[in-house]
Amino acid sequence: DAGVTQSPTHLIKTRGQQVTLRCSPKxxxxxxxxxxxxxxxxxxxxxxxxxxxxxQRGNFPDRFSGHQFPNYSSELNVNALLxxxxxxxxxxxxxxxxxxxxxxxxRLLVL
Amino acid sequence: xxxxxxxxxxxxxxxGALVLLRCNYSSSVPPYLFWYVQYPNQGLQLLLxxxxxxxxxxxxxxxEAEFKKSETSFHLTKPSAHMSDAAExxxxxxxxxxxxxxxxxxxxxxxxxx
Lengths: 111, 114
Known about the structure:
The structure holds two protein chains of two kinds.
Chain A: E1 5-7, E2 10-13, E3 19-24, E4 31-37, E5 44-50, E6 53-57, E7 64-68, E8 74-78, E9 87-94, E10 101-102, E11 106-110
Parallel strand pairs in A: 2-11
Antiparallel strand pairs in A: 1-3, 3-8, 4-5, 4-9, 5-6, 7-8, 9-10, 9-11
Chain B: E1 3-7, E2 10-14, E3 19-26, E4 32-38, E5 44-50, E6 56-58, E7 64-68, E8 73-78, E9 87-94, E10 103-104, E11 108-113
């Protein structure tokens, strides 16, 4: 049983660029959440998608946007990258939103 | 509003000693509580969860946690530390209902000395 998968594993971008991160949920899960984990910090909730709609959003600017596809996979897009966007981006999947299972993450470095 | 406080950013124990990692939460409604472990350069792995059933919760790798409503605590314990337990541990709360986000503590780094 494949767990949550994310791609790419690592990414280097420059300020002002745009980035797209991808996530495939665990089999049987219909909900995807995204978190940002800065170095030395706990993960911070960005948003959650369910039935292809954004169900809840954390305190992140509109530069952060997402999408969920009919097969439940999801993308996180970040526009106009800032140095402060450098972090580990974690995707978590769940069935209905209760217990969330995390993927390995995508490490983004903005130069 | 919900929040989590993990007391001690770094805990060091000897192999075979008791592990105690502290977590206090704040939630306006009965919470769901979780402990996750993160090994270097990896994602988060679920250790255990409390979802209003038994107050003593057993998880993987010999860990357990006890929900104490009166103390708003959910401390993580393991009777005997193993070298492989060295990792970062995160406590998280979800207030349920229409609030789906997990709110995490800042984490506790556990080191195990031989």
